[in-house]
Amino acid sequence: MESFTNFSVSLFKGFIDSLRGVTVLLYLDKEINERALSRSPNKEAENRQKNIKVNQESKVLTRVLQSCALNGGIFWFSILIFEYALLPGVKYLVSVVFGHDPGVAHSVWGWMQPFLSMTFRMIWVLPLFLLSKLVNSLWFQDIADSAYRHRRGRPQFMSSVSKIIADSLFSLLVQALFLIQSMLVSMLPITYIGELLCLTHLCLLYSLYSFEYKWFNMGWELHKRLTFIENNWPYFLGFGLPLAVLTQIPQSYIISGCVFSILFPLFILSGNEATPVLSSDYPLRLFSPVVALSNGMFRVVRQSAEAVTQRNR
């Protein structure tokens, strides 16, 4: 009974903490600006310091609005316009032009619709999707760095650049494999079990995304970040639940990506403010299989590189 109570409290606390980003966004910029002004050495330099420091530090609200404008106002809206305005309009014109023969109109539209959809995806959706991923990563980093400096001061990075690069590459591989693992467990032929396991994976993965900026700035290596999530998984299950559910609602992967990109900045702020509930009685080692697989892949690559180097000597 006590274990169930602790699980419920941790889950609920994580869920509530994940929503804090909405309120943090409303006052964080103001606090950053006020702190920047308070550092001005004298009144003569106040105006100059105000402009410099606000431009350097007050990026949170701007970046969140830019992310919403790019992912929702441009990307998502353009897809909706194409699907629900342009395609129906072209279909109507085809029916008007070939109105005397409905069979011909149906046949013409049968090959035009896939062609138009494919052309739209190749010329507009795919390039904009890739561009938005790149731009979002830069904006998300700005949001995380500004929030972290305001709350905790200067980041405590890892000891060397090579370690940072290796940690980042290994983290990307682990996250990609973990996403594949979540898709595999969703295929289990047991009613609702596969979906529940997939949702659990996504909750933990989105929690990792949200907290990773803060933990990276704190100098935590990947194994420490993953172990912390596995040991305190009820909290992170609750924290990632809102984003996991909201991104699962759209049927389209592209639309789901737009929803994620619009909401994710708020979860970065929530993660920066949150203090996870510790509950390491029953660790959930879901990351362990992909970590072992990633280690094996890196070991094979390293051995192959060493073999090539020896042959070239």
TrEMBL record:
Q: Could you confirm whether the keyword Transmembrane helix appears in this record? A: yes
Record's superkingdom? Eukaryota
Q: What is a single cellular component term in the Gene Ontology annotation?
A: endoplasmic reticulum
User: Where would you say this protein principally sits, based on its record?
Assistant: membrane
How does the entry describe its membrane topology? Multi-pass membrane protein
Q: Which residues cross the membrane?
A: none
Instruction: Note the Pfam families from the entry.
Output: EI24 (PF07264)
Q: Which InterPro entries match?
A: CysZ/EI24
Q: Which GO terms describe its biological process?
A: macroautophagy
Q: Which PANTHER family match?
A: ETOPOSIDE-INDUCED PROTEIN 2.4 HOMOLOG (PTHR21389:SF0), P53 INDUCED PROTEIN (PTHR21389)
**Name of the protein described by the UniProt record:** (diamondback moth) hypothetical protein
